[in-house]
Each structure stands twice: as C-alpha cells, then as structure tokens.
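Quick question: what would this complex look like in 3D?
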Amino acid sequence: METGQFLQYLVTGVTMGSIYALVGLGFTIIFSVTGIINFAQGEFVMLGGMLSFILFDSFGLPMGLTVVLSIAAAALLGILLYLLGIRSARKASPVSLIVITIGASIFVRGVAAEIWTKDPVRPPYFTGSESLSWAGAYIQPQVLWIIGTALVAMIVLHVFFSYTTLGKALRACAISRQAAGLVGIDARAMALIAFGLAAGLGAIGGVVMAPHTTVSYESGVMLGLKGFVAAAIGGFKSHTTAFFGGLLVGIIEALTVAINWGPFRSEYADAVALIALLVILVIRSRSLSAGERAS
Amino acid sequence: MRFGVRALYQNKWAILAFAAMLALLIVVPLSPVLDKYTMLLTFIAINAMVTLGLCLLMGYTGQVSLGQTAFYGIGAYISAILSKTYGVNPWLAMLIAAAAAGLFAYLIGFPIFRLRGNYLAMATLGLVLVVYTLFRELGSLTGGPDGMSGIPHLSIGGLHFNTPATRYFLVWSFCLAALVLSQNIIRSRTGRALRAIHGSEAAAQSVGIDLSRYKVKIFVLSAVYASIAGSLFVHTLRFVNPQPFGFLASVMIVTMAVVGGLASIWGALFGTAVVRILSNEVLLRFGSLDIIVYGLILMVVMIFVPQGLFVGLRDTFQRWRLKRARQEAPT
C-alpha cells in the first residue's frame, strides 16, 4: 500500500476515533461520578447532529447559533433523563438502571424518527469543503474540526477534573459518595451535573460529526457501543485513556477496511470493532469488576 | 393458619387461571370468531420461549442479557440453511441448530460470565450485533438482507404442519413444554442455586455454589429455548431475513420480560402476550411509535414496579385476598 493511501486510512481512523473518543468521554464522566453506565449516551450524539440540522434547515438559524442551541438542548435532556429516569427510581438495582437507560435510548430514537425524519441528514460544513492535501492524503476541514474538538474536550476535561473545585467535588463522589457527603458535597447535584455534562459533550460530538458522516435517528447504537469500547479500555476512570481508546477503535476499524481481506472486510468493520469490545471486556474483566464493586 | 389461607387462595386462583388459559388456547383456532388471532398467538408462543430464557437468566439469576435474539437467529438460520439448502430433515435441522446454539452459549459463557452488570449487558449487546452483521453479510449462505424463502415445513409421518391451526398447536406444545420444564427447574436444587446467586454472589459462593457453572448452565438452557423458537419461527413463516434478530428485537424481548415481571415463569408468557398484542393490534398502525412505547414501558415499569408488571399485579392481588381473608376470619 502506498504511503498516501495508508495515511488516508489513518486519517479516517483518527477522525472516527475522535468521535468515539467523545462518546467514550461521556460514558466516563457519568460512570466516574455515579457508577452508572448510561446506555443512552449514543443518542445524545445523534440528537446533537439531528438538532443542528433541523434548526439550520427548518428555522434557518445561523450555524453558530444552531451549534450552541443543539448542545444546550441535549444537555438539558441529559439532566431530564437523570431527574425523571434515574433519580425517581429509588433503590434501583443495576439491572433496573440498565433497563431504564435502554428504555430512554429507544424512546429518544423513536421520537426523533417520528417528529423529524428517518433519512440520514447532513448539516453544512463549518468551514467549507475544500480538502487540504498532506503527504498524498486529502484532509477535509471538517475532519480537523472533529479531531480538534475531541482533543480540546479531553484536555479541558482533564484540567477541569484535576484543578477546579467543582471537578474535584465530582471526583470525590466517584471515590466515595458517603465521604463526599460528609464534607458537604451534594452527591445528587454532582450526578445531575455529570449527566448534563456528558449529554452536552455527546451532542458536541454529534454536531461536529454530522457534516462529515451524516447522521440519522439510528446512529446512536453503534456510536454508543464503540464509545463504550473506548471508555472500557480506560476502565471508565481515565479521560485520557478513554480518548486514546477511542482513537484505537477508530484506527482498528479503518485498518479493517484497508486490509479488506478474509474476515477483515469493510462489511465486517463494525463486527471487528465489536469483537474487539468482547475481547477487551473479557481481558479486563477482573479490574473492571473490581472497579464496579468499589463504586 | 395465615399460611394455610394464603396457600389455598394462591393454588385455587393459579389453577383457575391456568385452566382458563388452556381452554382459551384450545378454542381460539377452532372457533370461527377468534381464529383470526391464530397467527398472532402462534408468534406469541414463539416469542415467549425466547422471553422465558431471558427471565430465567435475568429475573432468577440476576444476569442481564441483551443477547437472546442472537441465539434465536442462530436457531432460525441453521434450521433454514440445513433444511432448505442441504435438504436435511427439518426435525434433525432443529436438533442440530439447538445443539449448535447450546454449544456456542457454552463456549462463550465462561469468558462472558466473568463480567457482571453493565459490562455483561454491553458484551451481550455486542454479541447480538456481531451475529446480526454475519446474517446480513454472509450473503451466499444466508441470502443477505433479502433473506431466504421456501423453507420446508415440519411434519410427522402423514401429519403436515402447514396450516395455521396445525402450526399453532405444534408451537404451543413446545412453548408449554418449555414453561413446565422451567417451572420444575426453578423448584429444583438448580433453581434455588440461581436465586441464591441473584441474592448475593458472595453468599452463594460461600455455601458452595459454583457461580460460573450455574450461570453458564442457565445461559445454555436459554440459548436452546431461543434456538428452538427460532427453528419453529422459520418453519412456520417459511421465510427468514435478518430483521427479527437485531438490536431492537432484543430490546423487544427485554420489554416482554420486564412487563412479565422477570422472575416469573408464567409472567414471561403474560409479558410476551401483552407486548405482542400491543405491537400487532395497536402500534403497527402508527409507524415508529412502537419503539417509543417500548421505551416508555421499560422506563415506567422499572421506575415504579421494578419487580415487573405481572409480578407487581399478582402481589397486589394476593395482598388484597389476604387482607380480605383476614378481615372475614373470626378472631
């Protein structure tokens, strides 16, 4: 394979990987604060993308405003999911919480299909579509937006959780909710912030992704699963590992398409990523279940 | 005395309900008024076998699986391919399919049940999507997204299961057999071990219950149920495509189990019937409204009656009977 061609696949891998990284960061935020895996995380990405298209297409709002509104609306829905779905289910077992978030996820998907459209949609590019050429590979400006957003999100989250009071309070809940309560941290408020933050972050992913890949009401499942793989690589604890986990999933997927031989064919790209999920989960099962017990 | 009264009411009502159900089941395909529901009830019986496996796994053992439709699909496709493409006897194909699904569940069971809760749910969800992708992409074998038609029907000697009524009785015999078998398993040593695992894995382990052995055992059983249901499905419909084995189908099975009350054998049947009737008779007319309603059902039931709708109703009914019995009893 030529270098240029290889680089092209790599760019595709890193681009998709950055999207998975954003989804994975959302999983990590909610899990690290509440111990809950939000099975509806992929739907916030879908919502971000769909909303930005609908606001632009139906209401003719300028792109900048649609981006902000879409993210805000998704964050609000994340908070609603927490208030109506999670908090009202008192003493819920993990099984119940899984079922509740799955219920929320297909509910959101059904509503999106019903009130908007079942066809894939594509909002306009942020900054034109003229490709840049680099060492034989072509890079669209939107790709730079996607990779840049994921990178910035990872760094901002890292700084936020490490150096700000609120970030530290959120992490305190992750370590021990009781102990956090004793020093005056409201664990419920923190959980609410985590859900809002994760949903907003998911929507950011959807907003930057949609012009490049298109988005439809069904996009959430696969994005959610791959983001989950990304987060699982980091054990749902580390934002940086979730970020690189996302890139890894994206690159594995792109290479599967590149090899295009035997079981590594483009039709099976999703399946290969999912088998990677199964392998990672089983290999990490000991440390993952240890983490679950501690939370 | 309290226990005596309670047991009497429980038994009497359970027997009555069972007899009424059987009578209704026999009448439906034979009566000219109700026979339009034969097909619907046939599919309820098929789905109920899949739901039943999930109830054993999720309700009794506390292990979430979003992967039951994978085994359902494996049964369906192995049966379809063997009997149509290779001309194998449909009964033999069904047996091979069930054995293959069971073996597959056994092999992946040990690694997968090292996971718990959320991770188990995601892993089984991944499994469904992998299997679904294979059904769709292995076109030369499975017919791809278009599927395969002209699958032979089942027959014994001169009895051909090729009319709605004969297929109905065939499928319901399998379904009732699975329900009764499960009821017996739940009351056996295995059943007690499963409930112990649900209660507390550490406590179960401390009294000598081999966790992974029991989890895998029930996983294999649920896979075999689902596989047989899949075989019955293709020999009934005589057509198969990947659509009934995807992610949404899996969520539908979870919805049925949740409505049925997870830890209840007969609830599995009840839940399947409610969801299936709701979706066929009401929601089919409103496009994608069905998944909105499933989503709502899942959320509302889990928030307000986490033990499931059927079990919640049954418990309320029993409490009410008990209260009345106590008021009437002279003190």
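Answer marked as accepted. Chain A has a mean pLDDT of 85.
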